[in-house]
Structures
1.
Amino acid sequence: MSRLNLFTTKKPRKKASSNRKSRRLGRNLQSLEDRRMMAGDVATAELMPLESEYFETSTLDPAAQANWTLDPIADLVANSGQPLETMLTVSGDVETEALFFSASIVSTIEQQLDAQYDLVESDDYHTNCLGNNERWIRSANGGWFYVMPSGEFYQWQGSFAKSTLLADFDSSHYDNPDLIAEPESIDASVHVEGDILVITPDADYTGSFQVEIDATDGTHSASQTVMVAVAESIPEETDTPDETPTANEPLPVLMVIANQDFYYQEYGDTRQSLEAQGLEVVVAATTTEVARPHANSGQGADGGLVRPDLALTDVEAEDYSAIVFVGGWGASSYQYAFEGTYNHGVYNSTEALKSTVNDLINDFVEQDKYVAAICHGVSVLAYARVDGSSLLEGKTVSAWAGSAPSSDQPIYTTRQNIELNGGTMVQSGAVGDPTTVEDDVIVDGRIITAENYDSAAMFGRVIGELVSEPEYVDAVFAEWE
C-alpha cells in the first residue's frame, strides 16, 4: 500500500450553488486524512447501490385493486425549443375529469449519484493509482470512489474486495469520469395541463431523458415511465416570403375539423396530399383549443392532437381556394338543418355555430369555389341550406355508408342523412376500381366528396389538382387582376 501516499491534494472547497461546479482537485499528493480514509480508517457515507440502466420504458404500473389503468404511451420524439403535447388517457371504470395527472423528469443515475455523494470534478483522476487501471473520484465530504475500464463504478471501502458496486456504466464513463462527477443537466420542462402532457426542451438541448407520469383518483393511482428523445430543430427560413397572392398561385385550402371526435387519418392523409402539391393548409374548428380525434382513427404516438389555426367565426371565404369538412362523428355539430338532439352532448352545438357554418358554405358557393367533404363530413353539406334547399339536392356523392351517431331521430346511417336531404350516394367501391374504396372520390360541379379514410389521400390529390387549375386560379384571383 505504499502508493497511497500519492494522494496529498488539499481538501476541496464546499460545492458551489450554481448549476455547474467550478471546483477542480489539483495534481498534488493527498494528506494523511486521505490516506487513512483509503485504508478504511475513516467512516464512509451511507451506502445506496444504484442501477445504471434506464428503467424499461413505456411500462404500466397500475395500483393494486384499481378498476382503471393508465393507457401506455409510446416513446416520444421532441424537437429542441418546441413544446410537445400528448393526451393522457385511461381505460376502465373512471371518468377522465375525476383524475389528477402529474409528471416529472426522472433523474439520471449519474445525477442521483452526484446528488447523494456530492462528487467532485477533478483535473487528475489518478489512473492506476492502486494497480487495477482504476480511475478515482472524490466526494466533497472526503469519500473516495473509482471507475473501472469496463465502466463499473464503486465506492471504496478500504480494499478492492470490500468496495461496493454502485452502478454499471459503459466504458465511456471510464474514458471521461466527468460524466459521473459532473453529470449533464436535462434542460427541459415538463408539466400537465388537465389531461395534456406538455414537454418543452430548451432551444439548445438535445439528448434523451425519462418522464414519470402519474394519475390518481384520490383512492387509487397509476404511473408509467416514458422515454423522450430530443432532436435538433431545423432552423426556419430567415427570408420572409411575399404573402401577396398572385394569379399563378392558388389561395390556401381551409380544412374544418371538430374540436372533439374528428377522424384523424381523414384529416392527416388529406392534408399531406394537399401540402405535397405545394398548397398551404389552414385548419379551423369551433375554437382554437386543442382538437381531439376519435380513438384509433389513425393518429400516431402523439395522440393526434391538433391545435386549429383559427375559429370558424374568424374565417373569411375570400381568403381560401376551397373549404374541406373532415369526417368523424364530431362533424355532426356543424349540421345546420338537423332538427334532432344527439345522445352524445358534445355533438349538439349552438344555433349560432350552425348558422356560422351555413353562412360560410353559402359564401364559398356564391364565390363559385369548391366545397368538399369526406366520410361523415358529407352530412354537413347535406344539412346546409342554400336558397332554401340542401347543398346536395340533386348531387351525387360518395360517403361512409355505415352508422351515424345516435339521436332522438330515426336516422341511423350517414347515407340516410344524405338521402333525406335529396342527395344520391353511390355504393362503396363504386368509383374506379370496384375492389377498393381508395379511389372513391366524386366531383359533381363544385362539390367534391370522398368515402372515408381509405380515400383520403386521393381526396387531397383531387382537391389540389382542381384548385390549382389555371382557369380556376384565374377565377378565384379575378379581384387581384
2.
Amino acid sequence: MELKTNAALIIIDQQKGILQPRLGRRNNPQAEERIVDLLAYWRRTGRPVIHVQHLSRSPESVFWPQQAGVEFQERFMPQAGEQLIQKQVPDAFCATGLEASLREAGIEQLIIVGVATHNSVESTARTAGNLGFDAWVAEDACFTFDKADYFGHAHSAEEVHAMSLGNLHGEYATVVSTAQILKAG
C-alpha cells in the first residue's frame, strides 16, 4: 500500500447540519478527529484537498441552503488552494465536474472520508471505483446513523457502517484505517 504524492483527500459533507440530534444515533464518535488528522497531514505534505458540500433540494434537510446547517463546520473550512465541490445528490461525481478536475490534475488515487458511510461516502466511492480511480475509504474517518432496512428491521449505526464498508471493499474501493493511510504516506 503506497500513498501517492498527489493522492486527493475527499472530505464529504462535514457541514454543521450533520451534527443535528434529529438524525439519530451514530457510530464512530472519533471520526471527526481522524478527519482532522488526515486533513492536517494533507496540508502539511501539500497534497490536494477536496471539500464536498451538499446543497439539498429538500427544505426539510439539514443541508438545505437557506439555513446554517449547510455551512461547513469551522474545523473543516476550505483553505486557499483547496477545491470546493457542491453537490445536490449523494454522489460527489454526479453533475459536479469532479471527475474532469481530477483527470486534468492527473490524480488517480482518492482517499474518501466523511458522511454518511451508507449514503454519500458509499455512492462516491462506488463511482470512483467504477471510473477506475484507486479509491480508499478510511473506515474510522466516516460515520453513519441507525437505520431500518427495507423490511423494517432496525440496524445499529455500527451494522449499517459495517455493511456499507463490506459493499465497497475489494470491489469499488480499499477500506483502510487512518493509521494505515498515514503509515503509507
3.
Amino acid sequence: MSKLDVRGMACPLPVVQVKRALEAAQGEELHVLLDDGAPRENVKRFAQGRGYQVLEEKLEDGFAFTITGAGAATAPREAAPAAAAGPTVMLIGTDRMGDGAEELGRLLMKNFIITLLDLNDLPDRIFFVNSGVLLAAEGSEVIEALEELGNRGVEVLSCGICLDFYKKKEHLAAGGVTNMFTIAESMLKARSVVRL
C-alpha cells in the first residue's frame, strides 16, 4: 500500500498529488491523509470519477481515504481526436456580461443564465471562477436557474480558491466546489469551451 499526506496543501495540489500517486501505484491501494472541505471533496470526486473506490475515515485532524481499484488512470491515454467528441464546457469568470455599466452587465448575465433554461442544447459543465462564483452564492438572483440546470444534468461547479477569496465558500447555494486541475482538464478535453 502506498501512502500520501496532502494535508495543508492548497488547491489544486491535493488532486494533482493523488493523480500522480495513483499513476505510480499502478493499481496498488493508496492511503491518503487530507484536510476536510474542498480537498476532501475534490480528491473524492476525482478518484470516483476515474473508476476508483474510495473508503473514507474521519480523523481528529482531517480525513483518511483508502483508494482502491484499477480505475481509468492506468488506461492508455486517449488520442487527441477523441477530444473533439468531448463535452461542452462553459467558463464564467465574472458576475456580469460585457464591458460598461455594472448594473447592465449584471442584468445581462442574469438574463443569459435564465435563458439557458429555454435552450435544447445545454453545456455539460459550467465552471464559475473569479467573481463568477458570486452567481452561485447566496443572494444571487440566478440560484433557482442554476439548480434547474443541475436538475437537467448540467454540472455546476465553482472554484474553491475563488470562493475562499470572496469569503463565499460557506454560502455556496448552487452546485459544488471544484479546483483548477479539474477546470483545466475539462477545458482541454472539451469539444468546445464557451468563455464569458
